[in-house]
Amino acid sequence: MTVFRELNTPLRTIMTPGPVEVDPRVLRAMSTPILGQFDPAFTQIMNETMEMLRQVFQTKNQWTFPIDGTSRSGIEAVLTSILAPGDKVLIPIFGRFGHLLTEIAERNGAEIHTIETEWGQVFDQDEIIKAMERVKPKVLAIVHGETSTGCMQPLDKLGKACREMDILCVVDAVATIAGTEVKVDEWQLDAVIGGTQKCFSVPSGMAPITYNERVEKLLASRKKVERGVRTTGDAVDVRNPIQSNYFDLSQLQDYWGPRRLNHHTEATSMLYALREGARIVLEEGLEERFSRHRLHEKAIMEGIKAMGLTLFNDVTWKLPMVTCVNIPEGIDGEAIRSMLLGQFGIEIASSFGPLHGKIWRIGAMGYSCRKENVFAVLSALEAALIRNGASVQRGEALQAALNVYDPASRMAVMM
Ligand SMILES: *Cc1c(COP(=O)(O)O)cnc(C)c1O
Fold first, then answer.
1. Is residue 40 located within the same domain as residue 77?
2. DSSP 8-state class, residue 311
3. Rounded to the nearest whole angstrom, what is the distance from the C-alpha of residue 349 to the centroid of ligand 1?
4. What's the rounded Cα separation, in Å, for the pair 121 and 179?
5. How far is the CA of 72 from the centre of ligand 1 (A)?
6. Considering the entire predicted model, what is its pTM?
7. Mean pLDDT value across the chain
8. I need a surface site. Which of 10, 77, 290, 395 has the fewest CB within 10 A?
9. How far is the CA of 146 from the centre of ligand 1 (A)?
10. How many domains does the chain have?
11. What are the two backbone dihedrals, phi and then psi, of residue 95, each rounded to the nearest 5 degrees?
């Protein structure tokens, strides 16, 4: 008989676009005792989590709560609850996750309209607005931070334009939430989906979402309460009911709201994790957190360039938490990645589709976004490249990163 040993996970430095390292305080919170889901001690944790998530999303939306499942469960909950068969949706695609929005909307029977741009580019917002005028969709669904290409789509004009044309604006901010500005109310975004395992630095398994009254009104028109928990006053004959039970936001609202109507069993330990993760985000401060991501991004970019490598992205629309590096001619990108992991315990990412084998993606998100991790990834990458016969500027990367962190020490060296 096989005897399985106690779980013994290796310690890693994770510099990918997720999942990333988790603050030890979050892991500790996960090991605290289970509470029943209607225990007032637990419903208080639910309410506190909602309040903290509102602050992270920079919104006053009452409906701000996590969906149990990975980030795409949040996307699926929002799109499935909004879209009825035949509804028109417009999706601008600039990477893998735009295709994911299309995939989910398609399965809801929506009429899909897409505009596409090359991977590595973003859209001019006016181009999207023109497409909205032409298609007249019910929903615009768009990615904010496209982790597959390291690009960030400007959104500040889209929400307002959607409101003027009576379109609902749905945004995948999975990669950007808690790492850079996602101003839900100021940008007039109607529904926004965040992620936990990226800049939030909580394990994968929940998706915080937020949506406003425009969405709430639409949900109310499709609302059908489950037979076993229905009471008088709940609609029975509903046109176009929401097709999923698990992802039915109208029922989830009753679970997260004062009615406390039983739906699924809340994922207890994950909620502890999210609550502690959100608390840590707010304790650091949003502005401070965003500028920390910018600082380490700069150190990574300067280090990469000083080594003699080139960046894939145009800096004007670069996603701060993901730096894409062109794999040098003649170098096997996967050999370098496996050396980083095997010898140094450091993980970086490859990419998908047209960019597979062409770029590496170095993430610096949440708790992984630290100075020692930046030094570790730069020095190990340099060593692995030298080992694989690439010609790099030896020793320059860490000096360039140090110049970012400690410009005064550079003066001392020069004098
Ligand atoms: C990571 C990511 C997702 C998918 O997240 P899962 O947690 O794997 O479901 C969706 N959208 C974007 C932009 C992402 O970066």
1. yes
2. B
3. 14
4. 21
5. 6
6. 0.96
7. 96
8. 10
9. 9
10. 2
11. 170, -170
Query: What tokens were used for 51?
Result: 């309040």
Q: Is 71 in the pocket of ligand 1 (CB under 6 A)?
A: yes
- Tell me which residue has tokens 């609202």: 253
In tens, the pLDDT along 379-404 reads 999 999 999 999 999 999 999 999 99
Is the beta carbon of 195 within 6 A of some atom in ligand 1? yes
Last residue of a domain, one of 227, 247, 282: 282
Q: Whose CA is nearest to atom 6 of ligand 1?
A: 71
Locate the ligand 1 atom nearest the alpha carbon of residue 146 and give its number. 13
Is the Cβ atom of 352 under 6 angstroms away from ligand 1?
Answer: no
**Span from the CA of 193 to the centroid of ligand 1 (angstroms):** 10
**Angle 268-284/286-307 helices, nearest 10 degrees?**
80
Count of CA atoms in the C-beta half-sphere (13 A) of 360? 27
Instruction: Give CA–CA dist 305/206, Å, rounded.
Output: 36
What residue numbers bound the domain in which 99 lies?
23-282
What tokens were used for 314? 């145009």
Is 29:272 a contact under the CB 8 Å cutoff? Answer: yes
* pLDDT digits 0-9 by tens, 229-254: 888 888 777 888 999 999 999 999 99
- Does ligand 1 come within 6 angstroms of the Cβ of 143? yes
